[in-house]
Every structure is written in C-alpha cells, then in structure tokens.
Amino acid sequence: MRTPILISSTDDTVSITVQQRSSVAPSKAFRMIVPIDLTSVFHRVAPFPGVKSVANQTEEWDHVGPTRNPQFDDGSQVDEQLTEYTEGSSFAYQLTGFTNVLSHLAAGVRGEWNFNPDGDGTLLRWTYEFKPLRGRRWILAGPFAPLWRRYMVAALARCVRAVEAAQGNS
Q1: Cα separation of 62 and 32, whole Å?
Q2: Do residues 85 and 71 lie in contact, with contact meaning Cβ atoms separated by under 8 Å?
C-alpha cells in the first residue's frame, strides 16, 4: 500500500542540503548509493543516533513503493518509503512515524538524492526537507539545522568513501 506524499508545494518546510563531489560517474554512484547499507554510513553524530539495523523491508529498494523501518541505536525507529526513483539520476523517500524527539518537531521528512554529472565524476546533492509541526519551525530552522547539517555531512562523506572504494575494487 502506497503512503500518501507528505509534503506539497504549499507547505512551509525547512530544507537542509549538503553536497560532495566524487570521481565516480553518476550512474555508478547512483547504483551504489540507492541500496547502500544504512548501518555502514549513518553512524551516531551527537546528539543524533546512528542506524543500528533495518527491519521490515518489503521489497528491493529499486523502484517507487517499498517501505522499511530503520532502527536507531537509541532504541527509536522511523517508517521510510521510497517515493521517487529515476534510474541513474535521483531518488526520494519520506520518513514518518518517528519514535524519537523528531516526533515532537516534524510531521515527517522528504529526503532527496541527486547525482549530477561533474566532469568525469559526480556532484552528489542530498536534501532533507522537514515538515514542521505547528509552532516548531523555528526550532528546526534555528538550533536544529546546524546539528543536522553536521550529521548529513558525515553520512554523505561515508557514502562517497564507500562508492569510491567500491569503484577502486572493480
């Protein structure tokens, strides 16, 4: 069953975007990152937990529709669904049903990855778009944003290292 899309064009969201370059071609970077082992790249960056495991994955993560539940090392979890998938160039997902502090700040999140040609390599761009709960936007846009950006920068760097290491082994 497909979950309704969380964020619309009329929502006042808080977006955080990070980017990094890789020497790997966009299509190869895409094929490696879409199914990446979340536990290998989403480590604890205080105050945010790392991903400990993934439960209940319904299908392969290679088309619109599959769902899963990332489990965090603080005992919390989230519902995740792949909502967009354009082979070789981008994918998006939404996160809802947080069981941690985010349940008090946001109705959910839209995550989007873009793999853009950059010379012989790729410019990877990753955005988290938070849909704040009523009266909580200031927290997400203010004190929360730089902490979350730090978490994303660390995870993106691990993704790029994994992609480039795999490229070196092929």
Answers
A1: 11
A2: no
Range list of H helices, the chain: 26-33, 38-41, 137-139, 145-168
Residues in the chain: 170
Under-50 pLDDT residues of the chain:
none
- In whole angstroms, what is the distance from residue 24 CA to residue 170 CA? 12
Q: Can you read off the two tokens belonging to residue 40?
A: 């290998």
For 45, the token pair is 């960056």
Q: How far is CA 68 from the centre of its chain?
A: 13
- What pLDDT score was predicted for residue 166? 85
Q: How far is CA 26 from CA 14, 74, 120, in A?
A: 27, 34, 9
Rounded CA gap, 33 and 87, in Å? 12
CB 126 within 8 A of CB 17: yes
Cβ-contact 69, 60 below 8 angstroms: no
Reported pTM = 0.94
